[in-house]
Amino acid sequence: MCGIFGYVGARNAIDIVIEGLRRLEYRGYDSAGLAGVQENQIVFSKEVGKISVLEREVRKQTFQVPAAIAQTRWATHGKATQVNAHPHFDKERSLALVHNGIIENHDDLRRGLKDQGVSFVSETDTEVVAHLIAYHYDGDLLGAIQQAVAQLKGAYAVALVHRDFPDQIIAIAHEAPLVIGIGNHEAFLSSDPRAFAFYTRQAIYLSNSEIAIIKAETQHVYSTHASIDKEYCLLEQEFGEPSKGEFEHYTLKEIYEQPQTIRNALASRFVVEYGTAIFEELTFEDRDLLSVERVLILACGTSWHAGCIAAYMLGELAHISAQVEISSEFRYKNPLIPPGTLVIAISQSGETADTIAAIREVKAKGARVLGVCNVQGSTLVREADETLFLKAGPEIGVCSTKAFTSQVVVLSLFTLLMARRKYVDYESFFFLGRRYMYPTCLEGALKLKEMSYINANGYAAGEVKHGPLALIGEQCPVVALCADRITYGKLLGNLMEIKARHGKILAIASQKDRHLEEIVDDVIYVPVSRDELAVIPVTVVTQLLAYNIAQLRGMDIDHPRHLAKSVTVE
Ligand code: AGP
Fold first, then answer.
1. Ligand 1 mean position to 398 CA, how many Å?
2. Is 355 a pocket residue for ligand 1 (Cβ < 6 Å)?
3. Fewer beta carbons within 10 Å, N or C terminal of the chain?
4. Would you say residue 240 has pLDDT above 70?
């Protein structure tokens, strides 16, 4: 895909932008070009093919420019030819610009400009922007750009040089990534901050019809009518220099990196002792996660495949209905987003235009968006309410490999997190057991009542068919205490009766048993011990069950309502 790089400062601007293009090479492209201003004339070079071809041509010239812009093009409007390669110019060649994105109303604008006598040399939508700015220019370049931006439709990132202002570059961004890098008496511009992170980690992200005038010492940002104060941000460490190491291709290196990238995705998130997941970066409140009734997954390509796997997992393991949509199709369905929907947007890069447009659509309809992304600071990360990071390190190969396996790991952890919340919403529970486990049931039910104000009844399991069975069903789960060895077989029979009536069963058991696992929905195992002593570990589990449910329901656990620690009245 297209990549933009720009530089202004004391270094050799041409060398720096060629090097910048090399760092963007991984995105895939078919032609490349660059431009600057020398002795008040636009100088440029553009070639079809590799950056090395462009560099060979540039070395034949004696370019000396204080500022330069450059681009790798991936053809959309017009074939991959030298004429269609960027930069593009106005008629007088007073300006040169490069562009990523698509100008959606380029046909209308072209017609209007042609009526004004403008002639076009390329098939691109980009050339329209050059002529449009020149058309409005009367000495006030910012004003001309502001007028042009007000007329442009689509998503675009543009870098521009003008012969009247040799020592500055201008950046224009609308719903397409463009980032300014602020160095020491120098500045950089790129569609991917990774390309300049080698020089500086101080960055300003542009978007929403923003225009930046970038000089070595100053960088000012404007909207279509006023100046804007933009916040600087610090790029993350992971934006370091990429390297193939001993591998022939980045793709092979990334395939071999997977043992480590999977470890990174799991590290400090999978809590073995509790069999659940914790995401440090997730600041959704428990009540936000509890209110999730359905999940809508949006993604493209490989990320969409990971989304399809996540939908199965969420449905089967967390019992949350999940719908997966290809972002580019979803955008045009005018979708209904019912309350209780969590949107999960999956994107390795965080810059996929269709996915970004789809999340804007759902956010406008009030949905909460959880991003699953590999690139800190990307558009998805900035626009989603929350993001779970893949921590896979830069994926340079165009074919997504390690990102996919990391996406599956992160999404399975998220499924686990959601699945662990599934007993929280019930308003009624039965605790069943026999012999030593019978009073243990009564105690377990009491704890749940006290801590979470849920209606919980403890029963001797054999008594259930004499009445309480009438209450068994999907809405009333059973906590089955299965740690009494003498009555274990009989209890399994009672559980079969419950299962036959669609009751949901959480068992607490002391020995692994295939038969039990086939009957019940979930099992929590406690250490094997004598029947009399099994009361203790089983009780601890019921206490923790009550505690966790109460906490997720936001109860005042230490001080339940209406209760006192010492009841000193009769
Ligand atoms: C597949 O190998 C791809 N490069 C492509 O399908 C990619 O997965 C898709 O474009 C989505 O990219 P994203 O994850 O960065 O959004």
1. 8
2. yes
3. C
4. no
3-state secondary structure string across 397-466: CCCCCHHHHHHHHHHHHHHHHHHCCCCCCCCEEEEEECCCHHHHHHHHHHHHHHHHCCEEEEEEHHHHHH
The pLDDT, as a whole number, for residue 239 is 59
251 lines ligand 1 (CB under 6 A): no
Q: 328: Cβ below 6 Å to ligand 1?
A: no
C-alpha of residue 301 to centroid of ligand 1, in Å:
5
Give the SS3 label for residue 67: strand
How many angstroms separate the first and last alpha carbons of the chain?
79
Distance of alpha carbon 200 from the chain centroid: 25
Token pair belonging to 51: 């950056």
The residues assigned a catalytic role are: 2, 565
Q: How far is the CA of 146 from the centre of ligand 1 (A)?
A: 34
- Its sign, for the CA torsion 288, 294, 298, 303, is positive
| CB of residue 496 inside a 6 A radius of ligand 1 | no
Taking residues 370-382, what's their average pLDDT? 91
Helix axes 301-318, 402-419, angle to 10 degrees: 20
DSSP string covering 383-400? HSSEEEE-------SSS-
The helices-and-strands tally (H runs, E runs) of the chain is 17, 27
**Cβ of 412 less than 6 Å from ligand 1:** no
Q: What is the mean pLDDT of residues 26-33?
A: 82
The pLDDT score that the predictor gives to residue 30 is: 85
The CA 112 to ligand 1 mean position distance, Å, reads 37
**Tokens of residue 453, six digits:** 């104000």
Residues 207-221: tens digit of each pLDDT: 889 999 999 999 999
Q: Cα separation of 377 and 74, whole Å?
A: 24
- Of 265-274, 400-409, 447-456, which range is least confident? 265-274
Closest ligand 1 atom to 352 CA:
16
Pick from 263, 261, 257: nearest CA to 245? 257
The amino acid occupying position 40 is: N
**What value does the mean pLDDT take over residues 512-518?**
85
Quick one: how far is CA 405 from the chain centroid?
Answer: 15
Name beta bridge partners: 334.
none
* Ligand 1 pocket check for 540: Cβ under 6 Å: no
From 2, 27, 298, 400, the mutation candidate for ligand 1 (largest count of ligand atoms within 8 A of CB) is 400
User: Measuring CA to CA, which residue among 376, 129, 402 is closest to residue 251?
Assistant: 402
Half-sphere exposure for 325 (CA within 13 Å, toward CB): 22
Ligand 1 touching residue 327 (CB < 6 A): no
In ligand 1, the atom with minimum distance to the C-alpha of 299 is 16
CA-nearest residue for atom 5, ligand 1, is: 301
**Ligand 1, atom 4: nearest CA belongs to which residue?**
399
Helix (H) or strand (E) holding 344: strand 341-347
Nearest CA to ligand 1 atom 16: 347
The predicted pLDDT at position 43 comes to 96
